[in-house]
Design brief:
Elements (H helix, E strand, L loop, with lengths): L2 H7 L3 E3 H6 L4 H9 L4 E4 L2 E3 L5 H8 L3 E2 L1 H4 L15 E3 L9 E3 L15 H11 L2 H14 L4 H6 L7 H7 L9 H12 L4 E7 L3 E7 L3 E6 L6 H16 L3 E6 H6 L1 H12 L6
Parallel strand pairs: 5-6, 9-10
Antiparallel strand pairs: 1-3, 2-3, 4-5, 7-8, 8-9
Helix pairs in contact: 6-7, 7-10
Length: about 270
């Protein structure tokens, strides 16, 4: 293996000490730089041309990407891209970043990304509750963590708010936007069931107050085959006595008041529990 290949495995950027500890020599690094395959970002840090900016920020900041900045790199859902880079740094940290201090589980990879446990704990302590719930929901859904495991790692009064956020997670959502919709409906005091199997209809995203089906449409619902399937399900739902509303990402995220108003308009037309 040569230096460029090693850097590709390490996220395209690394400290010189990391490269040397992998068995390379200073001459190997100098030759790669001279050949234009590797560039020096500063003394002690080398990278491939075009290295990801967040990885570069992490290594230059002597830290690991975590919280909202590390989520996507660990395959977790992320509702909004962070305005600043979130780093786990044991000491110091760049002033233009959000710095997290405590680490519970070593990251265990060559890339400068914190462990899933650290990313989730930092997110629960740092992010708005809906954004944190989205991250945790995806981790639970994928089976890479559990709610009891996270609760055990959030002891004491200072973690009370973070533990409370875990109550928003049930692991039933198929996407980040479904988490947002579920929390939106339940915050209104609406009896909300998720991923309900209805005879003759199939599995629906939400069943509100036992009779209103709400479906959250992703990009695949614009495909002709899916449009036909959705139309058939809508008809079957109506013929079975259910009401149906459908919403997309933009509706739920950018116009939740409209969604709630329309849901209540339907619910008030029927007797609720």
């Amino acid at each position: 293996m040569d230096v460029p290949r090693f850097l590709r495995q390490a996220g395209s950027v690394a400290r010189t000490a990391t490269v040397l500890s992998a068995g390379f020599t200073h001459r190997d690094i100098r030759n790669a730089v001279a050949a234009g395959e590797v560039c020096r970002l500063r003394h002690g840090v080398v990278a491939l041309p075009g290295a990801p900016s967040d990885f570069v920020a992490a290594v230059l900041g002597n830290g690991l990407l975590t919280c909202a900045s590390g989520a996507a790199h660990r395959g977790l859902w992320l509702l909004n891209q962070p305005e600043k880079v979130h780093l786990f740094c044991r000491h110091g940290g760049p002033p233009e970043t959000v710095v997290h201090r405590e680490s519970l589980v070593p990251h265990g990879t060559a890339e400068p990304v914190a462990s899933i446990t650290d990313i989730l704990i930092h997110g629960l302590r740092c992010l708005p509750e809906v954004e944190a719930a989205v991250m945790v929901e995806s981790a639970v859904r994928q089976g890479v963590t559990t709610l009891p495991y996270l609760r055990q790692r959030l002891p004491g009064n200072r973690n009370g708010a973070a533990r409370k956020m875990l109550d928003l997670v049930d692991g039933t959502a198929d996407s980040a936007i479904e988490v947002v919709a579920r929390l939106l409906f339940r915050s209104e005091g609406i009896y909300t069931e998720t991923q309900v199997e209805l005879p003759g209809i199939g599995c629906v995203d939400f069943l509100l107050e036992g009779f209103l089906i709400v479906e959250i449409d992703g990009g695949s619902h614009l495909e002709p085959r899916q449009v036909k399937k959705d139309r058939s399900r809508n008809n079957a739902s109506t013929l079975s006595g259910y009401s149906v509303l459908r919403y997309g990402y933009a509706d739920v995220v950018y116009n939740p008041q409209k969604v709630v108003a329309e849901v209540w308009q339907v619910l008030r037309g029927r007797v609720i529990r």
